[in-house]
Specification:
It is globular and about 65 Å long. By secondary structure, the protein is mostly helical. It contains 22 helices and no strands. The termini are far apart.
Length: 455
């Protein structure tokens, strides 16, 4: 069929939209999906995976990966434009740094642990004759701790350096992380609730939370504020335009930086587009604040853009997984994923039991974060704290700021064998040093003391 305009990208968008809505419907109708709190985007992605792998729908995995890559970048840019939550600012000086510090150190502990464990397993498999790309195991903390977007982004960049199917393998680890976040996280949280550990928890969850759709007569929440008169510009168009401007500026910045780097390092730099996008977004918002125009950038609508991007990101990334490649690497993917899932779960439970306040709430939030994404952590937290009466939801946001130096540094470190020629053994050793530092900080702050009574 000859069409006057190319429709490929819009048809992919239409396909992903259909999957998302179908996933939402399935979540609303199937009890087991509600029981494990599988979000509609994840359910839709699995449906898309089935459609592609059975040949019912024929879409290039590379195209889906490209779409997912851009949605991932959009989500980070939108986060940067959202700015600091005013509710967090209002809590400053009230002793709330202890909770975010604990969660930041737990994430700072699990990231290098996952990298070191996975790197060691890759070396052991290599000694047994099963040769893998040097950074194969370092995709695990990206998939578990950072989510599918980062695993895809950096895995795709590594493909340009000889890591065949790096993006798909990264997505496979991210999917394994989701498995632990929901199939392990939900039963653990339910067990804690039944034991009465939750501070404000209840044995029942609201209908809209389980089903995922509000009832017709249920009161809805505001999505944001309108800063423009519709006779001039639609407020949503302005918010989207800000994201678009930052995207273009980021592209120019990465192109500029790439021109100063060797080809290999330049290729990997595109895997960090999201990071540069976040930085540029912060700068743009700061400039707007200096010009007293920051009120035009509405946090509510920017959060909606962030959530919208993440929903499509997850649908696209799960759909893009190539099962044939997963099957070819089933042994290392299976061994590494199970080992990391079990050890991560044990660490979070051990450290969570030593908290003096909000044990279950903080444990649920950080477990979802270090096995899936922050969104997974908030889903598990809502099971324990349905009305967000505890400060843990705010602490999660603050935690992301505190942990940035650790996770950011570790995200750079996973590239060490490719950028600086480090051996995998030496890189694993450095990750272990980071692990020990975080463990020592937990000790110094009194988080490793004997089990305390939950307040």
């Amino acid at each position: 069929m000859n069409t006057p305009f190319p429709f490929e990208l819009m048809l992919v968008f239409s396909f992903l939209s259909a999957l998302l809505i179908f996933g939402i419907i399935l979540r609303a109708k199937i009890a087991v999906l509600q029981k494990f709190l599988f979000p509609g985007c994840l359910v839709g992605g699995v449906c898309g995976l089935v459609l592609l792998q059975t040949g019912i729908v024929n879409i290039s995995s590379n195209l889906l990966e490209t779409v997912a890559y851009h949605f991932f970048n959009l989500s980070f840019i939108s986060v940067g434009l959202t700015g600091n939550d005013e509710r967090i600012k209002s809590q400053k000086g009230k002793g709330l740094l202890r909770g975010p510090a604990w969660m930041a150190l737990v994430q700072g502990l699990t990231f290098p642990m996952q990298a070191a464990l996975s790197g060691t397993i890759v070396l052991c498999l290599g000694a047994a004759g099963y040769e893998l790309f040097p950074t194969f195991g370092f995709l695990v903390p990206l998939g578990f701790n950072e989510g599918p977007g980062q695993a895809l982004s950096i895995g795709k960049a590594w493909e340009g350096l000889g890591f065949a199917n790096g993006a798909t393998i990264g997505l496979s680890f991210a999917a394994a992380g989701y498995f632990f976040a929901f199939f392990v996280g939900v039963p653990l949280v339910n067990k804690g609730i039944r034991k009465g550990v939750a501070t404000f928890g209840t044995n029942t969850l609201t209908r809209d939370f389980l089903v995922g759709v509000r009832a017709r007569d249920q009161k809805t929440k505001s999505a944001g504020s309108l800063a423009f008169h519709s006779g001039n510009a639609e407020s949503m168009a302005f918010q989207t335009a800000l994201v678009g401007i930052v995207y273009g500026l980021t592209w120019g910045l990465v192109c500029f930086l790439e021109s100063f780097l060797p080809p290999d390092a330049g290729t990997i730099l595109w895997g960090f587009f999201f990071f540069f996008g976040l930085g540029v977004a912060f700068i743009v918002r700061s400039v707007m604040k200096t010009a007293r125009l920051d009120y035009l950038c509405d946090p509510g609508l920017q959060r909606r853009i962030t959530g919208w991007s993440i929903d499509y990101l997850i649908v696209a990334t799960i759909t893009a997984i190539q099962l044939k490649i997963v099957w070819d690497y089933l042994l290392p993917i299976g061994i590494i994923s199970i080992a990391n899932g079990i050890l991560t779960t044990m660490i979070v439970i051990y450290l969570g039991r030593r908290l003096d306040f909000f044990q279950l709430e903080r444990s649920a939030a950080i477990f979802g974060t270090v096995t899936g994404t922050v969104s997974c952590g908030l889903l598990l937290l809502r099971m324990v704290d349905p009305e967000f009466k505890t400060p843990v939801a705010f602490e999660v946001a603050a935690m992301n700021i505190l942990v940035l130096p650790i996770v950011g540094g570790c995200t750079v470190l996973v590239n060490a064998p490719l950028w600086w020629g480090w051996s995998v053994w030496f890189t694993v050793l450095i990750f272990m040093c980071v692990f020990v530092v975080c463990l020592s900080l937990l000790k110094l702050m009194g988080f490793l003391s004997k089990v305390q009574k939950n307040a």
